[in-house]
Known about the structure:
By secondary structure, the chain is mainly alpha-helical. Helix content is about 45%, strand content about 10%.
Amino acid sequence: xxxxxxxxxxxxxxxxxxxxxxxxxxxxxxxxxxxxxxxxxxxxxxxxxxxxxxxxxxxxxxxxxxxxxxxxxxxxxxxxxxxxxxxxxxxxxxxxxxxxxxxxxxxxxxxxxxxxxxxxxxxxxxxxxxxxxxxxxxxxxxxxxxxxxxxxxxxxxxxxxxxxxxxx
Length: 168
């Protein structure tokens, strides 16, 4: 229910030599028949997490083609972290939750801009690769744990300072 199906259909029509591969479950009640019938669009369905690196290895550009609506407006798709870790270009629709990565992800405000960003990424997939990988590393578990430990150290210091003032 999050995918912008008309966007994907127009992208497939504009880039007939490309393959758009979608991995993930289709929720009951979501009609994807137009995507299934479109040349160049392949729905893999559910892919076990341990097999996703193999799927991403084949990608030239990673897409976050979400409709911008009440459901998606403030979402922050976790897949963006995984996409950045591949080093490949990432193109996303303009979701409010993606401000943190707008310097390394092509954020498209409309369908025409999305298609243009995909074409640009295909033309020069190496541009920005180092920055994407650095951003992924900065958001990895080790970096997050280090950040959390720093916050906890600060909180402990503040607590000890307050306790010392009260005792004085």
